[in-house]
Amino acid sequence: MRFGVCYYPEHWPAERWSLDAQLMRAAGLTYVRIAEFAWQLIEPAEGEFSWEWLDTAIETLAAEGLQTILSTPTATPPAWMVKAYPQILPVDAEGRRRHFGSRRHYCPTSEIYREQTRRIVTALAARYGKHPAVAGWQIDNEFGCHDTTRCYCDECAAALRRWLRERYGSLEALNAAWGTVFWSQTYDEWAEIFPPRLTVTEPNPSHVLDYYRFASDMTVSYQQLQVELLREQISPEQFVTTNFMGAFPDLDYHKLAQPLDLVTVDSYPTGFAETEQLYQPDEPHPQFAYDVGDPLVTGFGHTLTYGLKQQPYWMMEQQVGHINWASYNTGVRAGTPRLWTWHTVASGADAVVYFRWRACRFAQEQQHSGLLRHDGSFDVGYQDLLALQAELPQLEALTAAPVEPEVALLLNYQDLWALQLQPHRRDFSYLRHLFVYYRALQQLGIPVAIVPYAAQLAAYRLVIVPTAFLGDAVLAVRLTEYAAHGGTLLLGVRSGFKTPSNLVTAGPLPGPFRALIGAQVNVWHALPPGVGYEFESQIPTLSGPATFWAESVTPDAQTRALATYTAGPFAGTAALTERTVAAGRALYLGCYPTVEQARGLLSPLAAQEKIQRLAELPVGLVAARRGEQLVILNFTDQPLTAQVDGEPVVVPPRDVRVVKKR
Ligand code: GAL
Ligand code: ZN
């Protein structure tokens, strides 16, 4: 277990650095991440490097025993570069250049930008790749942030054409895959194809899906360039990572994580509680203390991050006080950063790096807090760090232990993109749907992993696939094998509705999963607010009505109907089916469940599969487990009691208790 901090030595006079380093050491920090926005200082003119300040910063930190996490500064191309090569600037869907003056102002496809990147990364790796005080590397900063995954420039247009040629081989195949006969969209030459720039009404969803795939691939290949340049020169002890953003939807995070030694993530709990889109607009939020954020939203991000490689991750930016980019930017009390730290470690983090060292007096983030205030005095985060020092042995016992959930929730970015392009019911959100199941499991005290389709599923007793929208045939085979070997699979609405190129499936629904579930979806209805189709179920804890989205399911002779519609147009057909698949089973749920319905379904499934429930938890308590240590966190301002194996465990307000659990 290690702590660290994000530091900008370039914001402070060099005479201050050694005092900062002493204070960092006194707070028990080990790692200091630096330089992710410092390109101009490192390379003030093309090909001219200025290393002294960076050498001194790293040495000053090292003199206090601090290890540097060095970043490549490619999130901020300097003004001289933009002046010399304005074509590196990204272009939005309306054809507008996004100009210099903030950050992330580059097109990841740009060959010129990749040339510039080669020079700075090669130079940094040559200088610090063997430096004993450099522990590892962060590539760039928050890929995709500020809507920068998707660039619509001419160079992206040319690269998209190459990408499509590779995928389809011929224009005939592309026209068929996109259904371009509709509205006279047929292409006769590759040169007629562009990124989906501003159109009159919605652009072709097959075109857009391929463009989203392409755009994500451009960032993945841009990162790969840096990964390879670093690995050519750095010592094997130095790790290579980038900082992810939890439930960020624009990039295929599974592809982005794949070449990295380790995944790191940034977490700003109050920000996402204020702007969060994971709840239905009309759904009441659970009540937590006012300054802790929503631990379910925060934990969803942690769990998603753990699942990217199914390995412990590092927290690269942990909020320590108020932020500056949300609606209220709520003030944070002492004790809350400590609670966040425990939460992320219990969820699978092995190190926690705080953002940021000291509040900055100038520019965009002048109202963002740090461990130190603007005037250098200690803010609440610094106090919490001192408190955490005393708890290091317990935290280290956690990081020494594995995270071993028995339930998996499957996530796929292509399904997410395709569904979001034509959600049909406008508020049908892929991530919200996942979040319903996640919350139900949290309420039941059942840990879950959020993993890609390609993950090893055999380790899980229950696998939930809320929506396998694009009907991935390889997934159908994998899920069939999983069930046949004794697993319990729960597949949800709208699965198999589309083909991989985003056309509607030709055969019966749910497409490639039809045989696996032994049932057929004949009709589906999006339901407006206030409308529900009643059903009766054989599961005492699960009851109707189906709201939001309902499907009429007809089971085959060998398949059981576990819930049947009793009224409305689907009366007499199934809302939930179960088929025995060799040693296991496959269930199909024909509605978008409420959290209560998801809980009512998962609770008996978990009991049948002997999935362990960590504790009985009132609203406000969150439980997570590493090895034999059960961590119970209280995100409210009242003491709350969990029941663990029939024993009460009282957790004080905004506090944490660790109990042994076999
Ligand atoms: C992150 C970003 C940091 C800083 C922070 C402010 O998204 O990586 O550089 O801007 O937000 O909360
Ligand atoms: Zn571009």
How would you describe this protein?
The protein has about 650 residues and is α/β, with parallel strands linked by helices. It is about 35% helix and about 20% strand. The strands form 6 sheets. It has a 9-stranded parallel β-sheet with strand order 5-4-3-2-1-9-8-7-6, covered by helices on one side. It has an 8-stranded mixed β-sheet with strand order 11-10-12-13-21-20-19-16, sandwiched between helices. Strands 22-23-26 form a 3-stranded antiparallel β-sheet. A hairpin with a 2-residue loop joins strand 24 (about 640-645) and strand 25 (about 645-650). Helix 5 (about 110-130) packs parallel to helix 8. Bound molecules: beta-D-galactopyranose (GAL) and zinc ion. The site of zinc ion has 7 residues, from helix 6.
List keywords for this structure.
binds zinc ion; eight-stranded mixed β-sheet; 662 residues; nine-stranded parallel β-sheet; alpha/beta; binds beta-D-galactopyranose; 26 strands
Which helices and strands occur, and which strands form pairs?
Layout: E1 2-6, H1 14-26, E2 31-34, H2 39-42, H3 52-63, E3 67-71, H4 79-84, H5 111-128, E4 134-138, H6 154-168, H7 171-178, H8 205-233, E5 239-241, E6 243-244, H9 253-257, E7 264-267, H10 269-275, H11 295-309, E8 313-319, H12 336-347, E9 349-355, H13 380-390, H14 392-399, E10 407-410, H15 413-421, H16 430-444, E11 448-451, E12 462-465, H17 473-484, E13 488-491, H18 514-517, E14 519-526, E15 532-533, E16 535-537, E17 546-547, E18 549-555, E19 560-565, E20 574-581, E21 584-589, H19 595-608, E22 621-626, E23 629-634, E24 640-644, E25 647-651, E26 656-660
Parallel strand pairs: 1-2, 1-9, 2-3, 3-4, 4-5, 6-7, 7-8, 8-9, 10-11, 10-12, 12-13, 13-21
Antiparallel strand pairs: 14-18, 15-17, 16-19, 19-20, 20-21, 22-23, 23-26, 24-25
Helix pairs in contact: 1-3, 5-8, 6-8, 8-15, 16-19
The structure holds beta-D-galactopyranose and zinc ion (ZN).
The site of beta-D-galactopyranose (GAL) has 11 residues, from loops.
